[in-house]
Amino acid sequence: MKRYLPRIADQILSDRLESSGAVLIEGPKWCGKTTTAKHIAHSVIEMDRPDLTKQYQEMAELNPALLLEGDTPHLIDEWQLATNLWNAVRYEVDQRDEFGQFILTGSAVPAKPDPSAHTGTGRITRMRMRPMSLFESGDSSGKLSLSELFKGVDPSGTDAHSIEDIAFLICRGGWPKSIGLKEKTALRQSIDYYDAVISDDISRVDGVRRDKERSRRLLRSYARNVASQASLETIRQDCLVNDTDTFDNVTLYSYINALNKIFVIEDSPSWNPNLRSRTAIRTTDTRYFVDPSIATAALGIGPEDLLNDLNTMGLLFENLCVRDLRVYAEYMDGELYHFREKNGLECDAVLHLRNGSYALIEIKLGGDTLIEEGANNLLKLASKIDLNRMKAPSFMMVLCAKAPFAYKRKDGVIVAPVSCLRP
């Protein structure tokens, strides 16, 4: 039996249980939600047990309180299979008037939420889990702390990863079951995940039967447009086979909504800073997968293909970095955004904390030319920020696939390999 690999979500979950009656953990299948929850829970009920699902659903209708019995925190896994449990948990939290009572996990947003359901505000708090970051999977040394950078600590840390290593990590992804396996077996996990999405999950989420080939084309198009602000119309056109294809907007939105509900895609919203000029800011979301390995599976490519196409590798490396930064941001009580103005100036990632502090981050594969380009972009953006109306960035960083060590340039921009990062 594989040992439990500590997750950043462990601490987040513990903290949330100390301040709320119940915690809902959401995220994609196979990312480790149930395993993490079981690591902390003192009792468990699994709603998706094949031999008991129907009975559990009937009991949830007749007497849901019975399903809430157990030592606390009590885990209800795949709670969305009986959506009225939401109100039952909320009510029970009110009655007990104690924190740390329940953990709910779900790999999909309910297709038909109970219209009578309470919002859960003040009783049930939410947290998001994603596939493992490089720090969690043991592929980052963790020598460079984002939290410490926000406090003004100078960067340090070395990196021993090759560009071949990074190509493998992009294709392997952060799926817990893939960690520590031989390369061929590890790479197979993301392919199996992708096959499950197009064959079953995209239809099961709301009971609407969706065409497997259309699902395949949509995910391939999303992968081709990863890290871009491609419009949904551009993606729709990319999915058409011929002039008679009827993949219309309504159908496209249905597929996109399903992929969002099962947490396969996770676009990045735009950041709107206070700038000294009136430059128009592009507000289209930037397209990303919850894990870059889904994109490589959709494109049917592996590590060698990435090494032979560094442009594609750069875009998928950006997706890997965004995944990790989102995991770290969750721990730091922050959000991740993308910035781009109409004239083309952009910043791949803006890590914005609840206290108003923020960091500007450019993501590059590496090499002096790309690092210089990224640093110049950051300095240009920072010079446009109206410091009378908002704070200056806590730090600016070019995040690389390959760099020998983390350091601060004379202009103040930090250069760091992603494989030495931690929250």
Polypeptide structure, described:
- The chain contains 14 helices and 13 strands.
- It is α/β, with parallel strands linked by helices.
- The protein folds into 2 domains: 8-128, Rossmann fold (3-Layer(aba) Sandwich), CATH 3.40.50.300; 144-422, no CATH class.
- The strands form 3 sheets. It has a 6-stranded mixed beta sheet with strand order 7-8-9-10-12-11, sandwiched between helices.
- Helix 3 links the parallel strand 2 (43-46) and strand 3.
- Helix 8 (212-224) crosses helix 9.
Portion of residues in helices? 25-40%
Radius of gyration: 22 Å
Strand segment tally: 13
Question: Helical element count?
Answer: 14
How many angstroms separate the termini? 29 Å
Neighbour order of strands in the largest sheet:
7-8-9-10-12-11
Helix-and-strand structural type: alpha/beta
Summarize this entry quickly.
It contains 14 helices and 13 strands. By secondary structure, it is of the alpha/beta class. It has a 6-stranded mixed sheet, with helices on both faces.
Structure characteristics:
423 residues, alpha/beta, Rossmann fold, 2 domains, 6-stranded mixed beta sheet, 5-stranded parallel beta sheet, 13 strands, 39% helix, globular
SSE inventory with pairings:
Layout: H1 8-17, E1 22-26, H2 33-40, E2 43-46, H3 53-62, E3 74-77, H4 85-96, E4 102-106, E5 124-128, E6 144-145, H5 146-150, H6 163-172, H7 183-204, H8 212-224, H9 232-239, H10 249-261, H11 292-299, H12 303-307, H13 310-331, E7 334-340, E8 346-353, E9 358-364, H14 368-384, E10 395-400, E11 407-408, E12 414-417, E13 421-422
Parallel strand pairs: 1-4, 1-5, 2-3, 3-4, 6-13, 9-10, 10-12
Antiparallel strand pairs: 7-8, 8-9, 11-12
